[in-house]
Amino acid sequence: MSLIDWLRKAEEHENRVEPEPDRLEGRVIAALRTVYDPEIPVNIYDLGLIYQLSVDEASGKVGIRMTLTAPGCPVAQTFPGVVEGAVMEAGGVNEVEVELVWDPPWSRERMSEAARLELGLL
């Protein structure tokens, strides 16, 4: 996937409609919003650390491609397990695979408007 494709994905992240909370994807996103970045007081979903989320409603399988705010983040080895554990708590989830990626690097532009407002960046 090219950098242009990733940038388009970031725009899609900003413009997408919230999924219904009674669907598995909505429950997974709600679970992701309970996990906070250890250095920035914003949840990882609104912070834009989730690059891709795939949810199979029928099997309960969830795939997550995510990053951290910096490659040298001290929780890089353990944080995917924290995310996996939080998502496993969502009703209907049977399997979670979390992949940590570094390309493209995270930037503030990936943050939701709510996160920017919360941090005083608007």
TrEMBL record:
Native organism: Cupriavidus pinatubonensis
Gene3D superfamilies reported for this sequence: Fe-S cluster assembly (FSCA) (3.30.300.130)
Name of this chain's protein: MIP18 family-like domain-containing protein
InterPro entries (alphabetical): Fe-S_Maturation_MIP18, FSCA_dom_sf, MIP18-like, SUF_FeS_clus_asmbl-assoc
TM spans (from-to): none
Pfam families: FeS_assembly_P (PF01883)
Residue ranges occupied by any MIP18 family-like domain in the UniProt entry: 27-98
